[in-house]
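Continuing the batch. This is chain 6 of the set; chains 1 through 5 are on the previous pages. Same settings as before, nothing changed between runs. Recording input and output for traceability.
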Amino acid sequence: MKAQIRTIQSALILLLALANVSASATNNGDESSSFVLLSSSSPLKMEAIPSPGDPGHELPARLEERIASRKKIQSDDSVTEGSGGSVMFDLPIRKGITNSNPGFYSISNFVDQDLMAPDMLLDYNCGERTYDLENGLNHNGIDYFNFPYSWLMMDQDGSVVVAAADGTIIEKHDGEDDMSCAFSESARANEIWLEHADGSATVYTHLKKNSTTAKQEGDTVEAGEYLGVVGSSGFSTGPHLHFGVYDSGNNLIEPYEGACNSLNDDSRWNEQPDYYETGITLIASHDAQPVVPDCPTIEEPNFQNEFSAGDTAYFSAFFRDALTGIIGSIEIRDPSGITVVNFGNFEWTQSDHAAGASVITGAVEFPSNAESGEYTLRVTYGSAVQEHKFYIDSSPPTPPGATVANNAQNGLFFDPGKDGEGYNFVTTASGTIIYFYGSDKFGNRLWLISDLIPGSFRPGSNIEVTMFESTGGTFGSPVPSARGLSVWGTLVVRFSDCDNAVATLNGVDGNKVSNLIKLAGVAGTDCTNGGVTADSPWSGLWFAIADEGEGYNLVVAPNGAILYFYGFKSDGRRLWLISDLVVDQLQVGASVAADMYEATQGDFENPVPSAQALVLWGSAIITLIDCSNMTIELIGSDGSKTSVTIRLAGVIGLECSE
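Output for chain 6:
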């Protein structure tokens, strides 16, 4: 079996084997002030990390029959086509929101173009980044493997599989063990097959157990929509995604265009990635040597960013597609920006290419009188530069807290010229969260949630924040946020006063500028007429732990309460609901009912006024249990559910007491 298909973990033992290091450290003539490099020699060396793989996946006969017997999906305006009407693809993998690493994958294998075996290898670019087996099986897809710390990344949902193009689910399988470390012909993978508008099919396999989309066979998905989490189910040697493409005649194709691609002439990518995607994947500091157990035990990186003078710290730098001729360097700079440790230069010399992944590690003993403050680990590789901050006898800066006066911006905002969509601003003690509700470019409902905005708003200042969208859930089975949320784009908000703001959305559905006015504020907040009412403190964000991935926003205005729901319809489309005005006072132990409405018209560029777009969806029954708990029963066209919710965040300045 070829080295490139060995599991990552078996080779990560190399992680701390620092060999041939050329380095220097500053001591200013005083031994007690020296930064001491441990186990160093010359020159600095990059170590290869072998990558996982699989033997490939033929189009099952059951799918060939199904595709042949059913009418092909008809193309529509939403389908992106290339020359000849072929559906074009985007990357089938994205970084999960739990993953803060700069990079998260590398490619170990492409389609094998040479049908002879064994050891007759040829990829689309005339290289040998593929493999075959002695039984004559040639690799028939692209392998994207988690990197680095693949099992930890899988455990934390750090690498997510998404639809490469619009399509229909024609096969879905889940429930298989996802901790495979070796090839087993009897093992079946968790996987999803999609059929696309041109009759082509794509396969996404080795998914994490119980991670597949809540959508079922026959349901449609959009490009970029959540399908599952990268795992190691089935015939696999470690966490990775096998992505395969078949044309309308059920023939294997390689989506890359290249001189040695004999399967198809043109690229099938909207933007074809480079053959080598060289770069820095992660740099980190550790308070102990990372522990990399035997497959499939989860790694323990021992990440640490805060140290004391006299400590020993360990450092690592991971690289994707290292190549000969590219020079890199590693150094540590003190709080003043002066280099106190120079690890020296390095380059990959063991072969033309590092087979997808490589690492450099080292250890430094800090002097007993090291200056306190923020230090910088700086790594360069060719034109790529990354910096990692760590601290000696100090801590990272504390994000600014919000002031009570910030609740002046809390409430519901909309642009009268874009009636049919709007924003919810929820100002909490930790910062502000903003929701947008409207429609996407295809005419389906869209809701977005912002990252947390620390501190307080200042009139006249621009606030820019990342906005996230969610896909992959249904009314009965919402998808957890860690899996379903992905970056949609950005929102820039500029308040002129507490009742007026300009909001600029820029993301995958387009961009727009809205001149917002406050529709309703929470009773008792600054800039809202009327004082605090008995039920004002119920305002805020609520969610049910069992249904994480959907939630509620309750806004108690001076003239009544409004309830918003953000989640999914029964067919997997996004759903947002808005209640009628609840004029009855909210009281502990009492239930109140409200009609709930959904929008059925509009698109991102052309929202339809609420009077035309909103239709009755059903009803909600709200029962207050105590200050931190309430039940919400939804009954409507997508089904019924009772959510036992807890308060996620309340409005700053309106503390709720039992």
